[in-house]
């Protein structure tokens, strides 16, 4: 039986936006296909063995909580970078997405990031709060979610997670949202992200299985309800444009 292990980093501090829902979604979609899936939750004092992980989730937290994990993240930076460069799968949401980059400059000081991806974030005003709809030719369906962030993120020459059809995205300026780097997905979309976007959940699972086993063909699931929710949001908000 195929098996994946999901590492949830610091859920006591970085779980502002229901990030456990993303893990529950991935686990159920694995289990429905006969793929074993387990989750390991890591607290600040725990040692993280990245070689034992197939997917890493870095969730969202307040600026204060990001400051708290900042020093710990620096201590695991080399191991985390090695995992990313070896095509380890990462889903980083909101504050976790900001921590992938070099830094996040806030009114209370600079939060040093992991420098796993060449991006940076600066605090802006007002907060960017709304539903959001993206498109990316890599995926068969739109990507839908909700954004609520004060940071303005700039990803340089990296590939965005999607082009913004409705909403603000990374910075409200360049019509890009999130980032794709190797098998890393960074995004401001939460609520949580994956239940309304089964194609993104399967993208993460497929990449993890291919890295571990060399190939992966996921059996189709009945996603009619998920697709209906996805399409409702897509049509409701893009019709306003």
Automatic annotation (TrEMBL):
Protein name: Lipid II isoglutaminyl synthase (glutamine-hydrolyzing) subunit GatD
Subunit structure: Forms a heterodimer with MurT.
Family of this protein: Belongs to the CobB/CobQ family. GatD subfamily.
Annotated function: The lipid II isoglutaminyl synthase complex catalyzes the formation of alpha-D-isoglutamine in the cell wall lipid II stem peptide. The GatD subunit catalyzes the hydrolysis of glutamine to glutamate and ammonia. The resulting ammonia molecule is channeled to the active site of MurT.
Superkingdom to which the source organism belongs: Bacteria
PANTHER family membership: DETHIOBIOTIN SYNTHETASE (PTHR21343), LIPID II ISOGLUTAMINYL SYNTHASE (GLUTAMINE-HYDROLYZING) SUBUNIT GATD (PTHR21343:SF9)
Reaction(s) the record says it catalyses: beta-D-GlcNAc-(1->4)-Mur2Ac(oyl-L-Ala-gamma-D-Glu-L-Lys-D-Ala-D-Ala)-di-trans,octa-cis-undecaprenyl diphosphate + L-glutamine + ATP + H2O = beta-D-GlcNAc-(1->4)-Mur2Ac(oyl-L-Ala-D-isoglutaminyl-L-Lys-D-Ala-D-Ala)-di-trans,octa-cis-undecaprenyl diphosphate + L-glutamate + ADP + phosphate + H(+); L-glutamine + H2O = L-glutamate + NH4(+)
Binding-site list for substrate: 127
Annotated active site: 94 (nucleophile), 190
Alphabetical UniProt keywords: Cell shape, Cell wall biogenesis/degradation, Glutamine amidotransferase, Hydrolase, Ligase, Peptidoglycan synthesis
Pathway the protein contributes to: Cell wall biogenesis; peptidoglycan biosynthesis
Chain segments annotated as transmembrane: none
Alphabetized PROSITE patterns for the sequence: GATASE_COBBQ
Organism listed in the record: Blautia hominis
InterPro entries for this protein: Class_I_gatase-like, CobQ_GATase1, GATase_3, Lipid_II_synth_GatD
EC number(s) per entry: 6.3.5.13, 3.5.1.2
Domain (CobB/CobQ-like glutamine amidotransferase): residue spans on this chain: 5-197
């Amino acid at each position: 039986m195929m098996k994946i292990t999901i590492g949830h980093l610091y859920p006591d501090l970085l779980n502002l936006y229901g990030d456990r829902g993303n893990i529950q979604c991935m686990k159920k979609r694995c289990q429905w296909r006969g793929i074993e899936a387990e989750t390991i939750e890591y607290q600040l004092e725990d040692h993280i063995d990245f070689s034992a992980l197939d997917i890493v989730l870095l969730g969202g937290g307040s600026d204060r909580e990001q400051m708290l994990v900042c020093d710990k993240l620096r201590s695991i930076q080399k191991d985390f970078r090695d995992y990313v460069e070896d095509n380890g799968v990462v889903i980083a949401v909101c504050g976790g997405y900001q921590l992938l980059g070099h830094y996040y400059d806030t009114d209370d000081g600079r939060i040093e990031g992991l420098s796993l991806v060449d991006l940076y974030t600066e605090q802006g005003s007002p907060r960017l709060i709304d539903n959001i709809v993206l498109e990316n030719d890599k995926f068969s369906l739109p990507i839908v979610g909700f954004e609520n962030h004060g940071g303005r993120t700039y990803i340089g020459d990296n590939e965005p997670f999607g082009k913004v059809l409705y909403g603000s995205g990374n910075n409200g300026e360049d019509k890009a949202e999130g980032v794709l780097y190797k098998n890393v997905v960074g995004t401001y979309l939460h609520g949580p992200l994956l239940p309304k976007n089964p194609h993104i959940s399967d993208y993460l699972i497929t990449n993890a299985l291919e890295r571990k086993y060399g190939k992966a063909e996921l059996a189709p699931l009945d996603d009619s309800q998920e697709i209906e929710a996805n399409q409702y949001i897509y049509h409701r908000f893009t019709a306003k444009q």
